[in-house]
Amino acid sequence: MAKIVLGMGTSHGPMLITPPETWGARVPDDRVTRHDFEGREWAFDELVEYRRSENLAAQITPDKWKERHAQCRAAIEEMARVLAGAKPDVVVIVGNDQMEIFTTDCIPAFGVMHGPTIVNNMISHDKLMQMPPGVRHSMPGYKPEAATHEGVPQLAQHIIKSAIADNFDVAALGRLSETETPHAYGFVFRQLMKDQVVPTVPVFVNTFYPPNQPSVARCHAFGASIARAIESWDSDARVAVIASGGLTHFVIDERIDNLILDAMRRHDLTPVFALGEAIFQAGTSEIKNWIPVAGMMDELGFDMTVVDYVPCYRSEAGTGNAMGFVYWKPQAE
């Protein structure tokens, strides 16, 4: 039977793959956007006033940005080293789509891509020009000019059948797109695999878009189902599972991040379930990509190592992205 040899969780935000001196480029967009924080929506100026006692201005100096960018890049390199050292034959990536391949016409709660190829080309010039400046210049960190990678149809179909048997209604995707792959997956291909892409099964969670966002508890149970499916697959493959996304953003909440990391370390997500679904909206919703992998690791009993946690603020309102990098290995290792 196949064997899961490694679990990982990584953030994938644009600040990780853009020079620190450009981190403020998205602030003009932040100023005109309403933001989810502590279970409700806020205007930018309301957040500035609410968080004034945190002295966030000290977190957005050029020197602080350089320091935190260097921390993140070091963590990414360590994650890449650990992944390469595990020598997986197959990787299962749990991520989400942000209207890169789906549209409002159809957004599945859960999905698994079971096709033979994954196309990850650079997006069109027209699409690039529609992106906020702080996102546009990050695209090469997710996408080469053109690349095609191997899927793993046999494992993907086995996961789908097993999940259906476990009462999860999973969309079966024959392909992602004719031209591009969501950045949740492209980040892993480019930054952790260094373009030496291992055959991959993409798993989707609809974290962002109401009304069919699965609950945190449902995501955890889905992960446990995937773990059982992988380890019952008739193959001698070594499998790594990777969560891509999070942590709290577009407004950083270090309390929430630390609560979640501690719960995952202890294999007890009860405090995470108790947070309620209102916390897991907007960018913070991507933590729901980590929850299935945490469910897999709970099923297997692997120990978690935190490579780093780096809150990357870009404004005095607390906007930015909290970056997390963790891995799980069997206790014997």
Structure description:
There is one protein chain. By secondary structure, the protein is α/β, with parallel strands linked by helices. The protein has a single domain, classed as 3-Layer(aba) Sandwich (Protocatechuate 4,5-dioxygenase, Chain B). It is 35% helix and 20% strand. An eight-stranded mixed sheet has the order 8-5-9-4-10-1-12-11, with helices on both faces. Strands 2-3 form a two-stranded antiparallel sheet. It has a two-stranded antiparallel ribbon with strand order 6-7. Strand 2 and strand 3 form a beta hairpin. Helix 6 crosses helix 8. The chain is globular and about 55 Å long.
Q: Keywords, please?
A:
333 residues; oxidoreductase; 11 helices; alpha/beta; globular; 8-stranded mixed beta sheet; 12 strands; Protocatechuate 4,5-dioxygenase, Chain B; 20% strand; two-stranded antiparallel sheet
> Judging by the overall fold, what is the CATH architecture?
3-Layer(aba) Sandwich
The run of helices and strands is: EHEEHHEEEHHEHEHEHEHHHEE
- Gap from first CA to last CA: 20 Å
Query: CATH top level?
Result: Alpha Beta
Biggest sheet: strand arrangement? 8-5-9-4-10-1-12-11
What's the pLDDT, averaged over the residues? Answer: 96
- How many domains make up the coordinates? 1
What kind of sheet is the major sheet? 8 strands, mixed
- Radius of gyration, in Å, reads 19 Å
